[in-house]
TrEMBL record:
This is Peptidase_M1 domain-containing protein. Zn(2+) binds at residues 409, 413, 432. Belongs to the peptidase M1 family. Binds 1 zinc ion per subunit. One of its GO terms (molecular function) is metalloaminopeptidase activity. GO terms for biological process: peptide catabolic process; proteolysis. The lineage of its organism: Eukaryota, Metazoa, Ecdysozoa, Nematoda, Chromadorea.
Length: 1007
């Protein structure tokens, strides 16, 4: 049944309903609009904040320089680098190719120090580069502190999941946790002040590994999955893996346990104490507690490795770990390591304190070696594995020698650096200087000539380097992580540090020195020290001359002063007076002074003959009087060995509270000056004078020194300073070299060549330097070490005139080059003597170039050029020899070799860099222009620089290259004004060389 409803009531009802819903609809619309507005604003704000955070946290290894992205070739690829870039020391710790954002070093407060770390690591997700960790730090608070916060280091990749603090078993509730990424610090701010006693700091965290700015270095399979890794926490990267007090002066003990996939081997500083396999394919490995050590020595390694175990004389297990494919190549290292280990223990009279030693040949490691206590890591690509690819006895012997050096260096660190650690990075030389010195000292018995000549070569490179603008002090304030990393320098740290250690030995005598070293290690075992603890263990006074000088006072100037001293000697030949002065050596000063002097006075070219000696002063007869120098010695003293592990936390705190101040650098040294004159076979004998030069200058009379006597300073080059003489004494030295050079000690002859190159070549008589190098003396020099230093000087002299036709100079130097050739042939019969040529690998390429420059038949240009033109893509083993000969042929015979050179330039294969060098020698303008265009197109100055190393480079090549560079954009690199990328050097590209129209005035300025 249908019920009828009045129309009026129905309408009223409908209108009433509408009037009630309308206001509700408006409110809802406004609410929806507001919600959308808030969401849009939130998205915008989140995007803005995220973009800002990403800028703050972007990878610190990101290279913004466009040149880095264009890196096709480097200087290492196309020309062998010189000097320290080949030293094993420079590769030891510092990876120059990587750079992260600099961080200021913060001294940690000493009111709270860690005693012990318990670290549990979960490596089951290491394939995804993720590590989870749990840390328990046992802390000691000294006295009731006014501070209410605990500071520790934490890396930017470490994320804290949970943090708890306990004292006496009770929870201590923090107020806030502040993370300062720019300073790598975490601050746990408490609600109350710290109280004296023990605290437990518990931190659960996770971190990502394998980043270029971290301390974990990974090896990847083809599918980019991490299959192995090793750690390197030196200098300040431990906090990138675990929150800690990342300061070398703060030592603590460690317990480490690791959960990892069962198929991998896991190693740490100490032996495994337990190993529990689980059903899920993982294993829990726990390691024994370490002795007190710095955090940068904490180490961990994981991978599919196999052991090669050996034993020392006292049955200490020494195991070399390699990947299966490298197992056979590790035999030499496994045989040599225990022998050197026993020798070090016997020499230091101090047993190695850990129960094992592992050596790992890592697949991917940024440096040559790292001395982690009980777990040394080497880069397998660096000189650790001995392959069967060495086809000559000389190459094999020298490669074995390099392996022995790097192993000895890292084993020596187990005492120098690990057992006794520098308190502050500014005293890093206590680690590296002693470890490098021990390499020379311990290997001298097996390789006497190699060791002695390498030490002199490094000393010679050090003196040259420290005479330039790049001359940092050995001990200097280091305020940032970048400064610490840059201090790991092959010349300025490793070589200079070992030279200073050797200087200490010479000042106190052999016996006193080694007794002092043993005392230093015993007294300071498990401690952090400064150089003052070293002086306390050494004899108080230096055993030199008639005056007693405190060893610490003498050495302080040598450690904190920049550069090296230059001692100048001026004789008055009429009244027996001698003036000796000292100053900081600066080669640039001598060059600029010489340039101004030659511009002011016109000098005519003179012959290199005995006319140089026509104007010696009139000789005056004087009465002879002999003065004896006195030497004092001290009796040997010994002390008993202390109990190593009984060091209290209070004594460690007192060590850290000592002032860390570095005196300012000056230009005054306490120089142990000595000179000699006379001859041993003569009736008068040889006289030696010794005294301390402590002031700017010193003037004195020596009535026994006749004007006809040649004065020779710093005999045997015992101490690392340069010597300059007045021009008359230089002439007498040159005459003695030519008449009877054997009257001058071998090492003194080396120093004469080095110093003459700096002082005589920039004097009023530069031809005297060429006279010393040339016709007579070096042509009969039979000592290979002296000859090699002379060859270096001759090569630099020829290099100064590259591109200049100067047949008289070439003819004058030919007998010396012939002697170098003869020595190279003669030394092939003695592998150790022949290996001297490999100490500086550039020397082989230098002798090849000098052969061709002086038109020696051993250049073999015709045969080499014919072989190259027949087979352009084939280069025999000695590439530098063949390239040098072919370049000489192309330059001197005015042949183009168009087909060969063009085909190689157009084909960008492995021989392209060789073709570029040969193109610089070609007389074909088309080839020169094509090569220059291709070089400029790479936007890499290294390739252009490599062509500048070619002995017969045409001036047109430089001209075309300069013109093309000037037409490029800024990213093209103006090679004459900008520094070389990737070359590891701070020097600019070689200065402008004279063209043909500039030849005459250039030679006149030099001569």
């Amino acid at each position: 049944r249908i019920t009828a409803v009045p129309i009026i009531d129905s309408l009223v009802s409908d209108f009433s309903s509408i009037s009630h819903r309308k206001p509700d609809y408006v409110r809802r619309c406004i609410l929806v609009l507001l919600i959308h507005a808030v969401l849009i604003f939130a998205v915008f704000l989140a995007f803005f904040v995220g973009h800002w955070l990403s800028g703050q946290n972007e990878d610190k290894n990101t290279v913004t320089d466009e040149l880095q992205t264009q890196r096709n070739f480097t200087l290492m690829d196309v020309v062998p680098p010189a000097y320290e870039s080949y030293e094993f020391m420079e590769k030891m710790h510092f990876d120059q190719g990587k750079r992260k954002q600099d961080v200021i070093l913060v001294s940690m407060p000493t009111h709270t120090l860690p005693l012990h770390y318990d670290i549990h690591l979960d490596l089951t997700n290491v394939a995804e580069k993720l590590v989870r960790g749990s840390l328990t730090a046992h802390l000691e608070v000294f006295g009731n502190s006014t501070d209410d916060e605990i500071l520790f280091h934490i890396g930017p990749r470490v994320a804290i999941d949970r943090i708890r603090l306990r004292r006496g078993g009770k929870r201590v509730y923090p107020k806030t946790l502040r993370i300062e990424d720019m300073r790598k610090l975490a601050r746990v701010v408490l609600k109350e002040r710290l109280m004296k006693g023990r605290y437990l700091l518990e931190v659960d965290y996770n971190t990502t590994i394998c980043g270029e700015d971290g301390g974990v270095h990974c090896y990847y399979e083809l599918d980019s999955v991490v299959t192995s890794f090793t750690t390197k926490f030196e200098p300040t990267l431990a906090s990138s893996f675990v929150p800690c007090w990342d300061d070398p002066g703060i030592k603590a003990t460690f317990n480490v346990s690791v959960l990892h996939p069962s198929r991998f081997v896991v190693l740490s500083n100490m032996p495994r104490s337990s190993e529990k396999r689980k059903s899920d394919g993982t294993t829990m490995t726990t390691f024994q507690e370490t002795p007190p050590m710095s955090t940068y020595l904490l180490a961990l390694a994981m991978g599919e490795m196999v052991p090669l175990e050996a034993r020392t004389e006292r049955n200490l297990p020494l195991t070399v770990w390699t990947h299966p494919e490298d197992f056979l190549y590790a035999r030499f290292a496994a045989n040599f390591s225990p022998v050197m280990f026993d020798r070090l223990e016997d020499e230091l009279k101090l047993p190695y304190p850990l129960p094992k030693m592992d050596l790992i040949a890592a697949r991917s490691f940024p440096v040559g070696g790292m001395e982690n206590w009980g777990l040394i890591v080497f880069d397998k690509q660096s000189d650790f594995l001995l392959t069967d690819g060495l086809n000559t006895t000389v190459d094999r012997l020298y490669h074995e020698y390099r392996i022995e050096k790097i192993i000895t260096h890292e084993i020596a660190h187990q005492w120098f650096g690990n057992l006794v650690t520098m308190r502050d990075w500014s005293d890093l030389w206590l680690n590296e200087g002693f470890a490098t010195y021990m390499v020379y000292y311990l290997l001298q018995q097996e390789h006497p000539r190699l060791v002695e000549n390498e030490y002199i070569t490094r000393l010679y490179q050090l003196i040259r380097k420290q005479s330039t603008l790049d001359h940092p002090a050995l001990v200097r304030p280091l305020t940032t992580e970048l400064e610490v990393e840059q201090s790991f320098h092959g010349t300025h740290l490793y070589t200079k540090g070992s030279v200073m250690v050797n200087m200490i030995r010479n000042l106190v005598s052999d016996a006193e020195f080694h007794t002092g070293v043993r005392r230093y290690l015993r007294k300071n075992a498990y401690r952090s020290v400064s150089r003052h603890e070293l002086w306390e263990s050494m004899p108080t006074h230096a055993n030199y001359g008639a005056e007693q000088e405190r060893l610490s006072v003498v050495m302080e100037g040598w450690l904190v002063n920049e550069g090296i001293p230059e001692v100048s000697i001026i004789r008055n030949y009429h009244n027996d007076k001698i003036l000796v002065t000292q100053q900081k050596c600066d080669e640039n000063f001598h060059k600029s002074t010489s340039r101004r002097r030659r511009n002011d006075h016109h000098h005519k070219a003179s012959l290199f003959n005995d006319s140089l000696f026509d104007y010696s002063p009139q000789l005056v007869e004087t009465k002879q009087r002999r003065k004896q120098s006195r030497r004092k010695t001290k009796k040997l003293r010994t002390t008993s060995s202390p109990a190593f592990l009984s060091i209290s936390i209070h004594s460690r705190r007192e060590e850290l509270r000592k002032a860390r101040r570095t005196p300012r650098s000056t230009d005054i040294w306490s120089v142990p000056f000595s000179y000699t004159f006379g001859s041993l076979p003569s009736s008068e004998g040889q006289v030696v004078r010794q005294f301390w030069l402590k002031n700017r200058s010193s003037s004195f009379l020596d009535a026994e020194l006749s004007p006809s006597h040649t004065l020779l300073a710093n005999p045997n080059w015992i101490y690392p300073y340069r010597v300059n003489y007045d021009i008359t004494n230089w002439k007498m030295i040159a005459r003695m070299l030519h008449q009877n050079h054997r009257e001058i000690p071998v090492k003194s002859r080396m120093q004469i060549i080095v110093d003459a190159e700096t002082f005589l070549s920039n004097s009023d008589l530069p031809q005297l330097f060429i006279y010393i190098l040339g016709l007579v003396y070096l042509a009969v020099e039979s000592d290979l070490g002296v000859a090699l230093i002379g060859m270096d000087a001759i090569h630099r002299l020829c290099d100064a005139f590259r591109g200049v036709h100067l047949p008289e100079l070439q003819l004058y130097l030919t007998p010396a080059v012939a002697q170098f050739d003869k020595l190279l042939d003669e030394t092939q019969a003695d592998p150790e003597l022949a290996a001297l040529w490999l100490i500086d690998p550039t020397r082989l390429s230098k002798i090849y170039q000098l052969r061709c420059i002086t038109n020696r038949h051993t250049c073999d240009q015709q045969v080499q050029a014919r072989r190259w033109m027949m087979f352009p893509s084939f280069l025999h083993d000695d590439v530098h020899k063949q390239v040098t000969a072919v370049c000489h042929f192309l330059f001197t015979n005015n042949v183009t070799g168009k087909v060969c050179t063009l085909s190689q330039l157009k084909t960008r294969n492995s021989h392209w860099s060789t073709a570029v060098q040969l193109a610089a020698c070609s007389h074909a303008d088309r080839i020169v222009q094509l090569a220059a265009k291709q070089i400029v197109a790479t936007k890499n100055a290294a390739i252009f620089a490599s062509t500048l190393q070619v002995s017969y480079q045409r001036p047109q090549f430089r001209s075309v290259g300069d013109d093309l560079c000037l037409q490029c954009t800024y990213t093209c690199i103006l090679v004459l004004d900008r520094r070389l990328p990737h070359a590891g050097k701070k020097d600019k590209v070689r200065h402008h060389r004279p063209g043909r129209d500039e030849t005459t005035p250039f030679i006149q300025r030099y001569l």
